Amino acid sequence: QVQLVESGGGLVQAGGSLRLSCAASKSILSINLMAWYRQAPAKERELVAATTSGGQSNYAGSAKGRFTISRDNANNTVYLQMSDLKPEDTAVYYCNALIRSYGVGYTAYWGQGTQVTVSS
Questions:
Q1: Is residue 82 within 8 Å of 66, Cβ to Cβ?
Q2: d(C-alpha 55, C-alpha 49), whole Å
Q3: Cβ atoms within 10 A of the Cβ of 12, count?
Q4: What contacts 56, CB < 8 A, 6 or more positions away?
């Protein structure tokens, strides 16, 4: 069964940095799109950043210049380096990936979420 396991969340002061990681289980054939979403309390889940297998990346306006998405294709891992964090970045961050596994075509999977809290 395909799983995405996230790590790296926590509590940080405004202006600080965090790096989130998301690793896919090894029983897969290929990964196309990998992305990070976030959901703040009482708000809808929103896209933060996404990257394709070819290395193209897109960012939400709030993330541009502060966040960097990267991936390690050999280890099926995607990262989100977050800098200059602001209290409004506080949310649960979710990894999402479009994965092809044995006997299954490309399917979107979600990680369990990791809490990021930025104090002022």
A1: yes
A2: 12
A3: 17
A4: none
First to last CA, the chain: 40
CB-CB neighbours of 100 under 10 Å: 15
Residue-level pLDDT, tens digit, the chain, 120 residues: 889 999 999 999 999 999 999 999 877 888 999 999 999 999 999 999 999 988 899 999 999 999 999 999 889 999 999 999 999 999 999 999 999 988 888 999 999 999 999 999
> How many Cα atoms occupy the beta-carbon half-sphere of 17 within 13 Å?
8
Contact criterion met (CB below 8 Å) for 38 and 114: no
DSSP three-state, residue 112: coil
Give the model's pLDDT for residue 114: 97
Task: Tell me how far apart the alpha carbons of residues 3 and 17 are, in angstroms, rounded to a whole number.
Answer: 26
Q: Give the span between the Cα atoms of 67 and 70, in whole angstroms.
A: 10
User: For residues 69-95, b (16+ Cβ closer than 10 Å) or e, as one string?
Assistant: bebeeeebbbbbebeebeeebbbbbbb
